[in-house]
Specification:
The complex is a heterodimer of chains A (195) and B (130).
Chain A: H1 2-23, H2 31-47, H3 52-55, H4 57-85, H5 94-118, H6 125-141, H7 147-162, H8 167-192
Chain B: H1 2-18, E1 23-24, E2 37-38, H2 39-42, H3 44-54, E3 59-60, H4 61-68, H5 72-84, E4 88-95, E5 98-105, H6 107-128
The chains are: A mainly alpha (195), B alpha+beta (130).
């Protein structure tokens, strides 16, 4: 009898833990938007390779900044739609915590971009972008579905690799990261996590 | 020795239960051993609502319904019971033209969950010591 009571108590605690974990997760990450961003990332890697940095840094930067803005805007619209379909709010709860965890690394990336360009260290940008975007996704992903932090870790690994490569080779890593990872994980999320 | 410590854990659980204003005996026949539980929070859907709100400042009716995978009626009835017990605060508003109900855990609700967690832990300790 006492064992049964203990089992019931353990079961209740497990239920509380599981409910808290699910309630704290941000589930409105849009796989479709991620795939769209991946397509744009591939395009940017083709149009503005790191080899272009030395010759025409303005074109390299403007291409990637425009792609980042378009990708971010597209993701926001898709996430908003997904959240509305699920009756979830984006202003508080898990979505707010996701945004608060996601944003700092992106802000750091923007600051470092300005600092590297100003100091003539633009060659460090591809690795920095991949690493810090990965850090943002990993931090936000800790509050989201499982594939998101895994994708973030993959971005960080590619970022680390990027620092060791020539600008020509970095183009492939940028394409694999902002293109390939977004497309692969976006497809997985859209198939398995409701769009 | 082990028996003594398990008895002590059971007594701690019992003391915690006495401190609960809405405490009731949860399992008939186990009165010698089972600490009294807060019956308001012990029911699964209500426990789910309180647990979900413990990690979110507020949740909408639809968010709770989806999270707990239950019906409108269930969420409505159980949230009302928690509200009547003073464990939840409910706000009704409109999101455009769509009615929206937000729930928030009150200080009393948070304390009730903490007490409930203490009871469960004490029960596990007591039964492990046997």
């Amino acid at each position: 009898m006492t064992t049964a009571l203990g089992d019931r108590a353990a079961d209740n605690l497990a239920f509380i833990r599981d409910t808290m974990a699910r309630a704290g997760a941000f589930t409105s990450v849009s796989g479709a938007a991620m795939m769209l961003t991946g397509g744009m990332g591939l395009g940017a890697a083709l149009l503005a390779s790191p080899a272009l940095l030395a010759a025409n840094p303005a074109r390299f930067l403007s291409t990637w900044i425009v792609i980042a803005i378009l990708g971010g805007a597209g993701s926001w619209v898709a996430i908003r739609r997904k959240a509305q379909r699920a009756g979830q709010s984006l202003m508080d709860g898990p979505a707010r915590r996701f945004a608060l965890a996601f944003a700092p690394a992106l802000v750091a990336g923007a600051v470092l971009t300005v600092a590297f360009v100003a100091s003539g260290n633009s060659a460090l940008l591809p690795g920095t972008w991949l690493s810090l975007y990965g850090a943002a996704v990993t931090a936000g992903g800790a509050l989201s579905v499982r594939p998101v932090p895994v994708m973030g870790a993959a971005f960080m690994a590619l970022g680390a690799l990027c620092f060791a490569l020539t600008p020509q080779a970095q183009q492939y890593v940028l394409a694999a990261g902002f293109g390939g990872l977004h497309l692969t994980f976006g497809y997985h999320i859209s198939r398995n996590y409701g769009g | 020795m082990a028996k003594q410590s398990s008895s002590a854990a059971a007594r701690r659980a019992e003391r915690g239960a006495r401190a609960t204003p809405t405490a009731m005996r949860a399992h008939k026949g186990d009165e010698s051993m089972v600490p009294a539980l807060d019956k308001i929070i012990h029911e699964r859907i209500r426990l789910g609502i309180v647990s979900a709100l413990a990690v979110n400042e507020r949740l909408t009716f639809n968010e709770l319904k989806k999270l707990l995978q239950t019906s409108d009626g269930n969420v409505s009835v159980h949230a009302r019971k928690l509200e009547d017990a003073g464990y939840l605060a409910c706000t009704k508003s409109f999101d455009g033209r769509v009615p929206r109900t937000d729930y928030k855990l009150t200080a009393a609700g948070r304390k009730a969950l903490e007490r409930y967690l203490s009871h469960m832990e004490a029960l596990i300790q007591a039964t492990r010591g046997k």
